[in-house]
Design goal:
Layout lengths: L3 H8 L3 H8 L8 H14 L5 H8 L4 E6 L5 H18 L2 E6 L4 H13 L4 E4 L7 H8 L3 E5 L15 E5 L1 H14 L4 E7 L4 H15 L5 E7 L10 H13 L7 E4 L2 H13 L9 E5 L13 E4 L2 H17 L7 E4 L2 E3 L8
Parallel strand pairs: 1-2, 1-3, 3-4, 4-5, 5-11, 6-7, 6-8, 8-9, 9-10
Antiparallel strand pairs: 10-12
Length: about 350
């Protein structure tokens, strides 16, 4: 088995230089030195021992990512963006766990990650103040809460986690404003009835756009998904809500869907009821998943800067693993409206 010493001899450098290259500490390294090390690694087929690294440092070159359900395409896109950022920038791998918004699942995944030496975790959860997250923070795990806007602190120890989110208030405002600008005057925010922080913020932004417009009426139309976590069922919920809206005596002429899967389900529901999109009802989604550009009509959507968010979360984890004294921060990144075909052009 090839050892790090073999690579050092082949590249004519010190073992420390090889270790620095493997662990991404190359800022002070000459380009030709790094190229010799990389060539030696390739020639010898050297693979660093994660077990040895864990024994030496107390952690392994892996990060955790806990999402409610990978069946939700927005979380699949998040997982890919985080994996790309972790591997490309730091050579880290990513453990993925589906929690289904169940506290026991969150707790068991956290325990498993700790057992594997993982010291940095991205969490998608509306319940980050639960004790199992506090306990992980006390054990030195660096955490980022994705799309939650809540920073966990526990006096007197001042334990904290970072928060990285799209500005969901602005996302809701952009979506509603687009409908208003296109002439819609009776608009609705359509959502799963459970309130997460991000959903509440989107609704706030929606109503802020309505408040600034004259002659616009608004409403929330909601229902509960079949499963408690309500992610993979969003399309079916959208279908059933579209059927309800189609039977209303005064249905809205514009809809902001809480996410794109709900909007896609609504397209199917309206189609089966003979309601045309966008001629009869316009729809704007939020989160801009790939499927939204492939359905007919293609769905206008508010897009998060996902690659930037993923890179920021990974950078923050690596920085806080190296220096736990770095204060936790909340980061809000601006969204962007993607205009397609699901909103009428008046």
């Amino acid at each position: 088995m090839t050892k790090i010493q073999d690579v050092a001899r082949r590249a004519a450098v010190s073992v420390t230089s090889v270790s620095n290259a493997i662990n991404g500490r190359t800022d002070q390294m000459r380009k030709e030195t790094l190229e010799r090390i990389e060539a030696a690694i390739a020639e010898l087929g050297f693979r660093p021992s994660h077990a040895a690294r864990q024994l030496k440092t107390g952690h392994t070159a892996m990060l955790g990512l806990l999402v409610p359900s990978i069946a939700n395409p927005s979380f699949a896109a998040l997982a890919r963006a985080v994996d790309v950022a972790a591997q490309k920038s730091y050579g880290y791998r990513v453990f993925l766990g589906n929690t289904y918004r169940q506290l026991e699942n969150e707790k068991s995944f956290i325990d498993d990650l700790l057992a594997q030496g993982v010291r940095g975790v991205i969490v998608v959860s509306a319940q980050v103040e639960q004790e199992h997250f506090r306990e992980a923070l006390r054990k030195g795990v660096a955490m980022v809460n994705y799309d939650g806007r809540s920073t966990l602190r526990s006096s007197p120890s001042e334990l904290a986690m970072d928060s990285v989110s799209m500005n969901n208030v602005e996302a809701g405002r952009l979506a509603a404003q687009h409908l208003i600008d296109r002439g819609c005057r009776n608009i609705a925010f359509v959502t799963e009835s459970a309130r997460t922080n991000s959903r509440t913020d989107k609704i706030e932004g929606f109503f802020s756009a309505v408040a600034d417009a004259e002659g616009v009426t608004s409403a929330i139309i909601e229902d509960r998904a079949l499963a408690e976590y309500g992610d993979s069922e969003m399309a079916e919920l959208g279908r059933s809500l579209a059927e309800r809206i189609s039977s209303m005596s005064q249905s809205p002429d514009g809809i902001v869907a809480v996410n794109d899967m709900l909007a896609i389900g609504m397209l199917a529901g309206f189609r089966s009821c003979g309601v045309r999109v966008p001629e009869d009802i316009s729809i704007v989604g939020i989160d801009d998943i790939l499927l939204s550009s492939l359905v007919a009509p293609a769905i206008s959507s508010v897009s998060p800067p996902l690659p930037k968010m993923a890179q920021l979360m990974v950078d923050r984890l690596i920085s806080r693993i190296a220096d736990p004294s770095i204060p936790a921060r909340e980061f809000l990144l601006p969204p962007k409206l993607i205009v397609r075909d699901s909103v009428i052009a008046r």
